[in-house]
């Protein structure tokens, strides 16, 4: 008997078969109530990346439609089959379809999950005790940056605070480990208040860790079998991070753009990027 497997990556899901379009949602006591009802109904089938509730256009009858994104194509498929043409949380039946087409350029813009989303997804499939995280190194690398850009610093007279972090994910039960690294930097005035500098240092350390965590999870693959068991694999890292005994030296972090790890950018896609084929009423 063949056991099918679903591969879960720690990336923002953009595939058609992971995105559901839900309409014919009746007005509820409030938009918050509608959101919570939709979220509860579909999270029953698997981990959700996002739920977006939108009011119907003025020319249509009052109500809402929703965009529901799953991490798993299998979960999205089961949810579509189970909820289409059923009331679920209302008297009128919902209409639920898998998205059929998306903007090709949008599909190529695959972004990593924020650290918070990574935690939630790992906990969902592995449990709170199924994995752990340790900080290998947290280092102020401002001086390294200053040495490389001394002439520029002398010109603008604005020093840079810069922190680098290395973290390691540990999946003991699966005998898998992988590392990630992150960098955060910010300009600070030379005559800035000492308390302001301390606050910025704490903030940069937090950001560096979050980006390192997000980077580490990009190497992780969760293989979910049809029987519910989960296996963990780590993709090899071509830019291997130095071992512990060498980490006190230097981190190779030049020319890396970390804006892609901004946790506020997880779900900023436009609804115009999603189109559906609604000719079938099966």
From TrEMBL:
InterPro entries attached to this UniProt entry: DSRM_RDM1, Nucleotide-bd_a/b_plait_sf, Rad52_Rad59_Rad22_sf, RBD_domain_sf, RDM1, RDM1_RRM, RRM_dom
Subunit structure: Homodimer.
GO CC terms of this entry: cytoplasm; nucleolus
Residue stretches making up the RRM domain: 18-101
A GO molecular function held by the record: RNA binding
Identification of the protein by name: RAD52 motif-containing protein 1
Subcellular location: Cytoplasm; Nucleus, Nucleolus
Chief subcellular location: cytoplasm
One GO-annotated biological process of the protein: DNA recombination
Pfam families the UniProt entry points to: DSRM_RDM1 (PF25517)
Keywords, alphabetical: Cytoplasm, DNA-binding, Nucleus, RNA-binding
Record has Nucleus as a keyword: yes
């Amino acid at each position: 008997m063949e056991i099918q497997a679903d591969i879960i990556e720690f990336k923002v899901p953009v595939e058609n078969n992971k995105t559901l379009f839900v309409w014919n949602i009746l007005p509820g006591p409030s938009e918050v109530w509608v959101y919570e009802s939709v979220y509860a109904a579909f999270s029953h089938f698997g981990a959700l990346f996002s739920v977006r509730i939108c009011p119907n256009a003025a020319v249509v009858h009052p109500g809402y439609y929703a965009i529901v994104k799953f991490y798993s194509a299998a979960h999205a498929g089961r949810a579509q089959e189970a909820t289409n043409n059923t009331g679920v949380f209302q008297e009128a039946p919902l209409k639920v379809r898998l998205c059929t087409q998306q903007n090709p350029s949008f599909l190529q813009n695959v972004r990593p999950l924020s650290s918070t989303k990574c935690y939630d997804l790992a906990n969902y499939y592995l449990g709170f005790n199924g994995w752990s995280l340790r900080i290998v190194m947290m280092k102020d690398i401002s001086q390294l940056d200053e040495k490389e850009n001394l002439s520029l610093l002398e010109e603008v007279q604005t020093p840079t605070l810069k922190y680098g972090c290395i973290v390691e994910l540990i999946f003991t039960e699966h005998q898998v480990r992988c590392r990630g690294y992150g960098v955060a930097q910010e300009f600070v005035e030379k005559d800035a208040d000492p308390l302001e500098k301390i606050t910025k240092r704490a903030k940069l350390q937090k950001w560096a860790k979050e980006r390192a965590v997000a980077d580490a999870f990009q190497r992780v693959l969760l293989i979910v079998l049809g029987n519910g068991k989960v296996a963990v694999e780590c993709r090899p890292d071509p830019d291997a991070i130095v071992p512990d005994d060498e980490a006190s030296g230097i981190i190779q972090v030049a020319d890396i753009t970390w804006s892609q790890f901004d946790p506020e950018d997880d779900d900023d896609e436009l609804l115009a990027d999603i189109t559906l084929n609604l000719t079938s009423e099966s």
